[in-house]
Amino acid sequence: MLTALQPTEERGRNGSIIWRCRCDCGNEVLADLSQLTAGNRKSCGCLSHPALKDFAGKRFGYLTVLEYAGKEAGMHRWKCRCDCGKETVVGQTLLQSGKTKSCGCLQAVTYRENLKLMEGTSVTMLQAVKSGRLLKSNKSGYNGVYYDKRRNRWVAQITFQGKTKYLGSFEELEKAVKARQLGEEIYDEFLEKVGAIDSGHSENHSGEGASRREADR
Q1: pLDDT tens per residue, range 17-45
Q2: Which of 86, 83, 81 is closest to 69 using CA atoms?
Q3: Residue 127 bridge partners (DSSP)
Q4: Which are the contacts of 23, defined by CB distance < 8 A and separation ≥ 6?
Q5: N or C: less crowded end of the chain, CB within 10 Å?
Q6: Which residue, among 92, 10, 102, 103, has the nearest Cα to 53 in the 3D structure?
Q7: Is the confidence at residue 112, as pLDDT, over 70?
């Protein structure tokens, strides 16, 4: 914080008096009275560039600080070892604020947990598709269905575990949608297998699908 010592004969752009002040860090600085009274000036600048602290041996999240790594772009940096074993250099302010808690592995773990990966497949994404949530690239209003301008037909397809299966092309959108819905039974089977879907609901859905296939025959 700044302590006003005495006014000077200098004036700011708006005619405000310039005061000589002493910062809590010990530095003296000239400050515009209007900035002081408005609370826009609170230090000699040290608050925006915190002083070097002794972080060696301390823990921040998954990181253990090893040693000082120098200053770069106005920020003190520390060499750290993550619980995963990887070493990384992190800014002092990022450690202190809690914005950085790992070498990056924590974010990757959180991402995988959110996806609920099972057998290399995201349960979360399958459930989102089954709930009717559209992918960002979708333009037809139905996942796995797009219009082929070259053939003037609607195409249905489904992707599962990295493989895309062609379900057919149709003159009518409704038929392409129906083909896609039947194809999604592979999603139901997988979700039931990993325990992410109610078995009773799955049986009902599969039974309805079987009935539709028999009716189509």
Answers
A1: 999 999 876 789 999 999 999 888 888 87
A2: 81
A3: none
A4: 1, 2, 3, 29, 43, 44, 46
A5: C
A6: 92
A7: no
